[in-house]
Amino acid sequence: MKELFQHAATTDGVTVRVAVNYLPEQSHPEAGKWFWVYHIRIENGSHEPLRLRTRHWRITDGRGMVNHVDGEGVVGEQPLLAPGQSHDYVSGCPLTTPFGSMEGFYTFQRADGSPFEVRIPFFPLSAPETAEGRPPN
């Protein structure tokens, strides 16, 4: 299956692309559990090498509850991206509602050691309509 990146944001020459998919096989609506997988591609369109140091996510569920998640790197890595290089990774997000959203930023480090933030675009998490959960009207 070819993934299409549905969401993108560019900050200082760095583009973050996101493709998100609902995973019914890992979701249990009857138990109040829904799961999505997201594929991120980070493209260094700048003219200098950049190292991804940290991530910050703002995850909002269908009730408006916000969870902030901070951590080192992405999936255990702090990739160094040369100009023109990209880095892909896949991760997942469970929620206790059939819809929600994610957004955030990465902190990168330039060759001179200075940090800067790169926006992760807002993207919705939405399960198909079921008797157990319907997206808001």
UniProtKB/TrEMBL annotation:
It comes from the Bacteria. Residues 8-132 form the ApaG domain. Gene3D superfamilies: ApaG domain. Coiled coil: none annotated. PANTHER family: OS05G0170800 PROTEIN. This is Protein ApaG. It comes from Erythrobacter dokdonensis DSW-74.
